[in-house]
Structures
1.
Amino acid sequence: MAEHKPQPKLVFADDDGNIYDHPELEMLVRRGDRLEPPRPDEIIPLPPESELFLLPGRDALGFDPESGEIERLEDRAVAAFVCPGHTLSATAAYAANPGAPVLPLFAYGAVGFSGDRFVVAAARVDEDRRQVFTGISKDRIVKGARALRTKYPKNHLIEHLCGCALTSCCPAARNLALGRFEAPLPTSRACNARCVGCLSLQDPSSGFPSTQSRIAFRPTAQEIVEVMAEHGRREPRPVFSFGQGCEGEPLTEIRVIAEAVARFRKNGGRGTVNINTNASLPDAVEAFAAAGGTSIRASLSSADAALYEAYYRPQGYSFADVGRSLARARASGLFISLNFLFFPGVSDTEAELAALTDLITEHRVDFVQLRNLNLDPELYLAVAKKSGALANPARHASMGLKNFRKRLRKACPWLRFGYFNPVVEAPPASA
Ligand code: SF4
C-alpha cells in the first residue's frame, strides 16, 4: 500500500468562534459534491487580506489517516474567502445540518493548517495590485473623497462613489478617491437577468441579502465625463469600467454611456474604456464600440447554454445573444474578456473545457478572468443539477484549476489569463 503523505491539518472553530488546527485530522476539500484530499500542487499559504469564515449549522469534515475514515466535528466548519487576484481550486469540506441557513454571497474556500500557517486550495492568477490596500492609510482615502466632493459638489455620481469608498469600503471607489488604477462608472438601475447570486439585488425569498445596494439614479453623461476626465488626469494608464457590483446591466443604459464615452474621446480622453456586462444586447455592444469603447468583459458562469441560463435566468434574451454580442464585439475591434465565474468540480470538467474552448475560439476571445463564483456551494450545485448539466458524464470528474487552465491555453494559445480588467490602450491587432 502506498505510503500515506501527511496533508495539512483540518481547521475548525470552537463555540466562541476561535479557530484551531486539529492535532490528528487532516484537511479535506470539495469539488462539486466530491470530497477528496487536496492535490499537492494546489496548496498555497493563505494570502494576506483574505478572511476566515465560520459556517453556521455546518459540521467540519476531516480525514483520519489512522482509520482511513472521514470524521465529522459538529458545528465547527470554517472556510476561507481569498483576497482578489486568487482563484479557488476547491471549496470547503463540510456537512450542512438540517435547517442550516443559506450562506451569504461569498466564495467558500477549503482551508487547512500546515507548519505554522493557514493554507488554502487556490492559485494566484493575477499579480496586479489594484485591490491591495495594505499600507494605505484611511486618511488618504478620506482626503481623496473629500477633495472630489469639494471639486464636484453637484456631481451625483461622485457623491455616490465617495459614499461607497467611505462606507462600504468598495475597492473600486477607493481607487477613484486615491486616483489610481480602475475607476468605477455605475449607471444602471435595471437588469435583464435575474442571477441567482446577484450582488446588488436579491429577492427576500432567496434567504440571503445582496452584498451591495443597487444605484438608485442614472448619472448624466456630463457627470460620467467629469469622473473620467478627473481620473484620467491622475492615473497615467487609466481603466474606466461601466458595470459595477452596485448596479444592474449597463447595456440597458447604452444611450447615456455612448454619449459620455463619445464626449470623453472628443475631448482627447485617453485610456481603457471597459464595460462589464452580461453581453445580452448585441446592438448596444456595437454602439459602445462606435462611441470609443476599448474593451468588453462578458460575465459567464458556464459556456453551456442550459447551465448558463439556469444561473443567469435571462429576461428577454438567451445564451445565443451572448454569442451574438461577442461576434459584434469582435467585428467592432473590442478587446474581449470573459469574466468566468469558476466553481470547482463543475467548471474544471471535460464538458466545460470543450464548451468554453469552442466559444473562445469562435470569437477569438483575448482574455479570461478566472473569478470565484460567490454563492452557497450547495445552492449552486442544486441550480446545476436542475439545469441537467450535471447528468453529463463529462462533468463527473474534475481536472483541477491548474490543469483546466493549462489545457485551455493549449487549445487557445493566444489566450491570456488574469483576474482584473487589463489595460488595453488601443484595439487589439487581431481585430
Ligand atoms: S447581470 Fe449583474 S446586475 Fe444583472 S442580475 Fe446578474 S449579477 Fe445582477
2.
Amino acid sequence: MLYRLMLFALASSALAAPANAQNPTAKAGKYVVELRIPEEGLFAGEEIDIEFRVMDSTKNDEILGMAGVPNVKVEAVITMPSMEGMPEAKPKVHAEGVPGDYGIESFFPHGGDYKIELALTSPNEPTFKVAFTVDVKDEKPAKGKPKPYVLQIVDGKGAKAGQPFNLKLRIQDVKSKLTVKAFDMAHEMYFHLLLASKDFQWFLHEHPKMAPDGTWTVPITFPASGEYFLYSDVAPAGKGSQILIASIKVDGPKPSWTTSWKIGTSGQDRGIQGSISSFGGDYPVAKMTTLVLKITDSTGKPVGDTVPWLGAAGHLMIFSQDGHTVVHSHPAHGEENARLVKQGEMRFSGRFPKPGIYRIFAQFQRQGKIHTIPFTIEVKP
Ligand SMILES: [Cu+2]
C-alpha cells in the first residue's frame, strides 16, 4: 500500500525527517512529530481519528525512546491543494491517554491528496509548525461509518412537476441531532444546491437562503414526475467541505426526455459548443486527473470572453451513474489558467473513484448567461 508523502516543516529550524509510509515524521527544532496513519489507510466520507505523537529529541530514553511532550496546544488545518477554493477544515485535536499522544478528528469529503498542517505550542515555548501530505482513498463502497452531517428535506411532500415548489432543507449534525446554523463560505455562497433527475438528464445548480432557524429554502420547478437527487455542497464552520445527498419524489406528467447514457464528450448549450477530455488521454480510476474543457461558438471559434461566476472561471460537477459519487471542481486561479480561459479552455481537477459511466456538467458565465453543458464519459477499469 503506497502513500505519497511530502513533509513541510515550516519553522526555519525544521528539518525533514526520513519518511516512513505508515508513520511519517517531521522534525522542528528539538521536537519530532510522528503521524500515525491507520493500518487500512485513510478513507473519504467517514470520521477518522488520526493520531500523532509529539516527542522531545533531547529527552531520549534508551528503552522508552524519545519522551512524549504532554499539554501541547495544537491547531490543525486540513486543505486539498489540488482543489483551490475548497474551504479548509479546522478539525478538533484532543490529547490521547498516553502523554505526548494526540488525535485529529478528521473528515475527508472525497479521495485525493490532502495537506495536514499542525501548529504546536508547548507550554512557555514558541509555536512550531509541521505539515504532512496524505493520500486519502475514495469512500468505501460498502456503508462505512456514518457521515457527521446529513441533508434533510423539511416537508418534502407535494412537489408537482411544472409548478414552483418551495424546497426547504436543513443540515443536521448527526451526533447532536442539532440543525447546523454556522457555515464557512465557499465560492461566494454558503450553500450550493445541485439537483438532478435520477438519470441525470436534467440538472440545476441553485443557492438556497438560510432562515434564522437554520432551514434553507429555494423555489424549484421540477420538469417532470420521478425521483430527483439533491446534493448540498456546504462547509459547516471549521469542518471543511461536505457534499451530502438526499432525494425527493415529484408527481405529475412523465418526462418528455429519454434516458440516455450514451458516451458523449461534446455538448452544447444555446449556441456554445463544448468538448471535454482528459489531460492524460484516459480517465484513471481513483487518481486525481486534469479534465480539459474547450468551448467554441457555432462557427468553431474559441470562446474567450467568459467571465468568472461564483468566484471561479467555471464549475465542473461530476456524478457517477448511481449518483453516489460527486465531485465539484473549479479551475485553479493563476496566470496560466487565466491565459487559457482567454483561449476558450478551462482545466479542472477531477477524480473517478470507480470504473463506470459518469455524467459531467460544465458551467460558466458569458454575456450575462450561465451556460450548462452536459457530457457523458466512461471510466475504464
Ligand atoms: Cu453554487
